[in-house]
Design a protein that fits this description.
The structure is a homodimer.
Chain A lengths: L1 H20 L2 H15 L2 H12 L7 H15 L5 E13 L5 E5 L5 E4 L1 E3 L11 E8 L2 H12 L3 E4 L10 H6 L2 H12 L5 E5 L27 E4 L1 H13 L4 E5 L3 E15 L4 E11 L9 H20 L6 E8 L7 H12 L3 E7 L7 E7 L2 H9 L1 H4 L6 E4 L15 E7 L4 H4 L12 H21 L13
Parallel strand pairs in A: 5-6, 6-7, 7-8, 11-12, 11-13, 13-16, 14-15
Antiparallel strand pairs in A: 1-10, 2-3, 2-9, 4-8, 5-9, 10-12, 14-16
Chain lengths: ~475, ~475
């Protein structure tokens, strides 16, 4: 028994020595090889997507996902795994929404809609009204109360197709969805229909969060998304006859907040255990699909980062945590809670990386950091080139890690290829079959390589610890 | 009428002046914008895939594709559109193949196979024999005739998962498919089963070309591909019991060569009409799917290059041709014929670009050219960066343009993201729905930008014409 124990310890020692004598090129090559030949992310995602399914905050599925990922992290031999309690909103969709366009002659055409997350219900028998189409809030102002009162406002601004980064096109549209009800209610609108945030023409409505801000309950109007094909249809019918009616029925509602959890695992640092580096995604998803891309992918990739570090025999100097955030989609409670508690405990979070842009082929990272650190990142570009990782830009990181921002730390976001992302985002086709195993695994490897480099060289190049030694 | 004509000419003049006064950045931005907001490639691909379908050389569908693409090119207002006759092989699959594994007890398990292109049929009632599994030709040699004679050779070497460029993994495997029958026949094998060239585990067999070289007819043994899942199953069953039988039946055959065509369109150069730059893909495809990625995508992207040049008001100095090659898959007759006739006519082909790696997000190009030209290409990298095109490497180009190689010209291949390509390659799921519109359009724009730059600055930087003027 002693002999076995000694042999085991000796083996671990050899692995450790081996990694330390390897060049960064070799370590990173090994990470990619392990991810592509022995990755766990795809199997985890299969379970999250196909055994659990959509994981809306406050749902039973969300709690199953908490339990499952905690159990899986516990199998990895990390130093700590725990749940961090957080209260989350619970919004439920109710029965499937129904909508049609009605011409003056009474002929009806059924269209595909879904309630926006956070919306109130229509009256029990539905809501029917004339429709006024607008592209933006300026249009509302120009039309004024006289043209809008008593009508359903139809926001029909498309995502801009010639932007290469589709997230920029999303950014240029999403205020219609998020603020559309608040703005339309000012002019006496009775409901809101929003063109789905989708670059493709299809029949799938895409949900997503919306707000009423502090509007009193009686001024809250029901809001739904309509598929891109049906948005075009509605627009055409309105051009032919502005008097057409739109009918929709949804019985979604907001319940009381419920208890949920962030799931956290940690490899405690060997030299600077009080410096925390985190990698994460969000466990919750919308309810229409199974949330494979948004953000099952980010969850399983983040889990695999810690597994790959261990499998590669890397003993990080700093404490590396995987954080699976709850409630990114409709509240960001998990991200806020994690940052709040980190602040309370005085935990120094020097680095936070989020994967929440889909499980597609990774192209690189965006960084929210100072110039010195960014230049350090740029010096690593040759290490990533063999893996076709070329995109290193300053910019946003991720919603969940945002609250951790300090003057000196590094926030980063994985940037996968974005062309297909909004075909699936928040829709019923955000499903496991749309994720490619290799693309997912390449993302996990790319994240692991970045974590390895930041742990080895440190975040702030002026520290002694951060001199590049190789 | 005169007034209208004058106005039109004046407008064209303005467009032309405008392009010439624009920077390369502006011209390329406009190309991408036009491709993404007003591209034609996706609609063309829809027709090729869904109205015509698989286009195996010598088939009726292949001729329909010739006719359709010629008609569409004629609508573009090019200077010339014509068909270039070429005799092509005609291999037909016959009725759907059937195969099973039979245990000693007589229990049978059906498996998914398809005949390899060019294979002979099995006997009419099928072929049943013991199986010997090998990974490569060295295994055959080590086993020798004693172990192989009278058996079916099962080539089961997987694609190497840790290679980032999946085409390299394909290159490491494809000799099993192409030369497997010739090598196995040397040892008296009666048939060949090859693991599908696919990085994914699924149930789809992937066809592809194979050869018998100059083997006499009576030594030609039938060859088929088996799905990756079924290859694993067969391998496992052989480990449990090496005496299992494999049965397969296919009635494919090689008919006489038939007449077909390369389809060619040309914008004649304004300054150097005798210098030819071509862009192309191959019109033929395998027959199991509709050939959307291989190579419908390359066909429609190449067509769109000429359309985008015209739409952008670019008047090329050199003659730009789109060439839609026939019979890349099982003979390369179109590529050879085009080069042969170009040589006969003394046409100086200074540049040839092929798109034949799928319609996925473009990552860049590989180049077969001299160092001076390659350095010129590298100087253009900043122009491509806004479109996330980063990959510029020396290497292969494309099978169809290969025969055009001279000492001084440039051959190039579009390099799209390759992670998903072999999930679909030569299989029944190489279909239109697997192509993303934006990814396809980005490829067309990227090709157009490269053609624009090479036309403007020339191929050989030591020529007067090729000094970079901007």
């Amino acid at each position: 028994m002693y002999k076995l124990k000694f042999t085991l310890i000796f083996c671990l020692f050899l692995v450790s020595v081996n990694v330390q004598s390897q060049t960064d090129e070799q370590v990173i090559k090994d990470i990619y090889k392990k991810a592509l030949t022995n990755g766990k992310s795809y199997a985890w995602l299969n379970h999250l997507s196909n055994q659990i399914g959509g994981r809306l905050s406050g749902s039973l599925n969300a709690e199953k996902a908490v339990e499952y990922t905690k159990e899986e992290l516990e199998k990895l031999g990390l130093n700590k795994v725990w749940l961090q309690p957080v209260m989350v909103p619970k919004w439920v969709r109710g029965i499937k929404e129904y909508a049609f366009i009605e011409s003056e002659s009474g002929k009806t055409t059924t269209v595909n809609i879904c309630a926006l997350g956070g919306s109130v219900a229509t009256p029990a028998l539905g809501l029917k009204a004339n429709v006024i189409e607008v592209k933006n809030f300026e249009d509302l102002e120009a039309l004024g109360k006289a043209e809008i009162e008593g009508k359903i406002v139809f926001y029909n601004r498309s995502m801009q197709a010639d932007l290469i980064l589709t997230f920029e096109a999303y950014g240029g549209c999403v205020n219609q969805r998020y603020m559309g009800a608040v703005e339309a209610a000012k002019y006496g609108a009775v409901g809101v229909i929003v063109r789905s945030m989708n670059l493709r023409m299809d029949d799938l409505p895409h949900t997503g969060s919306m707000t009423y801000n502090d509007l009193p309950n009686e001024q809250r109007i029901p809001s739904a998304a309509i598929s891109t094909n049906d948005a075009e249809l509605l627009s055409t019918m309105l051009q032919l006859d502005p008097a057409v009616n739109f009918y929709f029925k949804q019985n979604c509602r907001q319940l009381k907040d419920v208890q949920s959890y962030n799931v956290i695992g940690e490899i405690t640092g060997s030299e600077f255990p009080d410096e925390y580096m985190i990698v994460g995604g969000h466990l919750d998803s919308w309810d229409l699909g199974d949330g494979a891309h948004d953000d099952g992918a980010g969850v399983v990739q983040s889990m695999d980062v810690l597994r790959l570090l261990k499998e590669s025999g890397i003993k990080p100097k700093r404490s590396i945590r995987v954080v699976l955030f709850m409630n990114e989609e409709n509240g960001l409670r998990g991200g806020k809670k994690y940052a709040e508690l980190a602040k309370q405990k005085g935990e120094n979070h020097v680095f936070a990386l989020e994967s929440d842009s889909g499980g597609f082929t990774p192209r690189g990272f965006s960084f929210d950091c100072n110039d010195a650190t960014f230049n350090q990142v740029l010096s690593w570009q040759p290490l990533f080139k063999p893996y076709l990782i070329h995109y290193f830009e300053k910019g946003g990181s991720g919603a969940d890690v945002g609250p951790l921002k300090t003057k000196s730390n590094v926030l980063a976001g994985l940037r996968p290829d974005s062309q297909r992302y909004f075909d699936h985002h928040h829709a019923s086709n955000d499903t496991f079959d749309a994720v490619n195993k290799r693309e997912l695994e390449l993302g996990a490897a790319t994240m692991t390589a970045l974590v390895y480099l930041f742990d080895k060289y440190g975040v702030n190049p002026i520290n002694k610890d951060t001199q590049i030694k190789d």
